[in-house]
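Reopening this one. Same input as before:
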Amino acid sequence: MATIHQPGWLVSLEVSSAQLQGDRALQQDCLLVRQDPQALIVLLADGVGGHAMGEHAAQLACFSAMRSLQWSLRRPMQDLTYAVRASVKAAHTAVSRLQPAALPGSPPASTLIAGLFTPRLAQFHVAYVGDSLLYRLHDGELELLFAPQTQNGMLVSAVGMLRQRAGGWLPGVQVKGPLDLLPGDSYLFASDGIGDLSHSLIKAYLGGPNVRVPCETLARRAMFKHTVYDVLGEPDKKPQQDNTSLAIVSIGAPPAGAQS
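Same output, byte for byte:
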């Protein structure tokens, strides 16, 4: 857990993250949290099941998006909405080059949430593709910022699966921002490993004063439902627990006298 603030920032950020492998043989999630002099970058990717090299696709998506965002932040007067969208394009281009002809299964693909917090502007920009989860707790209400891109239970959009149109536009990439960063708000980035948890439970944990506690506890609560089957002596009925990755960013007021 870390509290982040710099002179000139309009808000402070408190950040925590957690990962569990679950019942999977491999960790196919990638979670990157990086502090830049101007911003906080949070990237979450989840390799698509049934596609080859899911763990490689997720890592490549995250690191490609990170390079793109860091490059964008070095440019003066950069359009941050464009920057998060461009980071998904960079991830898609990189993952699309993973073509393991000798391996069975569909081509590599990954979900991606590319979040960019700019505390000096008190703004948040984010680009989204896939079925990972991004929640915002605002004024005591929990909101899912993007609907998972699924149809009949099947993922229909992900980096590596997008179809580029003329001019480089990638349909399927959703973007929000700028969203105002307000003290008391929290953002939860999560892979679909917590998909069974209720909104009321997530809301209860996010509303606490310490982001480290809900981050670690939510990850473990995602495992609890599956542990019950072992306790009942019915392990054959236990669903397979997916990889679970979480990052929570809570917005606070700047320290007293720090807005100089």
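So the earlier flakiness isn't reproducible anymore. For the record, The chain has one domain: 2-252.
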